């Protein structure tokens, strides 16, 4: 985990403002330790914060006297009376760990084995022994850059879930790529070489809606989004060296 000292400042506030969250618990999320103050904290925050989304968990925070409040995959901290709310990160300076980031990573982890790989475009390099899943839009510039970087990573199988979230002709491109005689070749040709996918001939059912629903389920709001076999997810593009480093880290988890 990157230890970000720049994030040490935490805003102390009584209102969430524009913060919104989905209240569904992420798969594999570990519950915070139950506390006797939970009911009082829930009641106080519910009364003091208008428009607060459903609180999923209240538990002990890593610092004595503070309590963790989880709303979806968002983490906040409060006191025993629910009089204050801290939006920020708890850093373990001795061990150089970002405890809040680690907690959020666990909450947002995706069970790789549960992914519907039949709805993904698949290609590999070398033996394909290592695996990642990627959520990508065919009109996403960073996705195209990432696709080129993937060519430099050895022994990798890539499962790409095509999600047309950028509008325009993204849905049509996704369908044309998926329905091509060789969807993997069509995807790579478009993303790496800029060769437009062949025109769709006849009827073909593409998993556009299923993949979009999958992305919503896991709160994937941007592309590319990368998922590793241990459930770790990384939003945004990685270069080949960064990807290799994360692959090595994930394999040790």
Low-confidence segments, given as residue ranges, are 1-31
What is the CA–CA distance across the termini?
Answer: 12 Å
Form type: elongated
Instruction: Kindly report the spatial arrangement of strands forming the biggest sheet.
Output: 1-5-4-3-2
Structural class: alpha+beta
Q: Largest sheet at a glance?
A: 5 strands, antiparallel
Number of strands: 12
Describe this protein's structure.
- By secondary structure, the chain is an alpha+beta fold.
- It is 29% helix and 20% strand.
- It has helices spanning 38-48, 99-108, 141-150, 170-178, 183-193, 208-217, 240-252; strands at residues 11-13, 57-60, 67-71, 74-78, 85-87, 91-92, 97-98, 121-125, 130-136, 156-162, 225-228, 233-235.
- A hairpin with a 6-residue loop joins strand 2 (57-60) and strand 3 (67-71).
- The longest helix is centred in the last third of the chain and has 13 residues, at 240-252.
- The chain is elongated.
Name the descriptors.
253 residues; alpha+beta; 5-stranded antiparallel sheet; 5-stranded mixed sheet; 7 helices; 12 strands; 29% helix; elongated; disordered N terminus
What is the element layout, followed by pairings?
Layout (H helix, E strand, L loop, with lengths): L10 E3 L24 H11 L8 E4 L6 E5 L2 E5 L6 E3 L3 E2 L4 E2 H10 L12 E5 L4 E7 L4 H10 L5 E7 L7 H9 L4 H11 L14 H10 L7 E4 L4 E3 L4 H13 L1
Parallel strand pairs: 9-10
Antiparallel strand pairs: 1-5, 2-3, 3-4, 4-5, 6-7, 8-10, 9-11, 11-12
Short description:
The protein is an alpha+beta fold and 253 residues long. 29% of the residues lie in helices and 20% in strands.
């Amino acid at each position: 985990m990157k230890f970000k000292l720049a994030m040490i400042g935490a805003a102390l506030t009584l209102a969430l403002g524009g913060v919104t969250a989905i209240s569904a618990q992420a798969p594999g999320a570990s519950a915070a330790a139950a506390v006797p103050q939970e009911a009082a904290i829930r009641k106080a925050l519910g009364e003091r914060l208008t428009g607060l989304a459903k609180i999923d968990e209240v538990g002990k925070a890593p610092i004595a006297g503070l309590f963790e409040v989880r709303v979806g995959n968002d983490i906040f901290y409060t006191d025993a009376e629910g009089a204050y709310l801290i939006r920020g990160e708890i850093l373990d300076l001795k061990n150089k760990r970002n405890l809040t980031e680690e907690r959020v990573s666990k909450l947002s982890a995706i069970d790789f084995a549960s992914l519907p790989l039949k709805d993904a475009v698949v290609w590999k390099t070398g033996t394909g022994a290592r695996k990642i899943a990627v959520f990508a839009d065919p009109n996403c510039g960073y996705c195209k850059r990432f696709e080129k970087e993937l060519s430099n990573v050895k022994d990798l199988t890539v499962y790409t879930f095509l999600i047309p979230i950028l509008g325009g002709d993204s849905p049509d491109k996704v369908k044309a790529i998926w329905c091509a005689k060789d969807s993997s070749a069509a995807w790579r040709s478009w993303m790496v070489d800029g060769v437009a996918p062949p025109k769709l001939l006849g009827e073909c059912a593409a998993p556009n809606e299923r993949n979009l629903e999958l992305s919503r389920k896991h709160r994937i709001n941007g592309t590319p989004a990368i998922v590793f076999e241990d459930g770790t997810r990384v939003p945004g593009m990685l270069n080949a060296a960064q990807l290799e480093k994360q692959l090595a880290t994930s394999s040790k988890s």
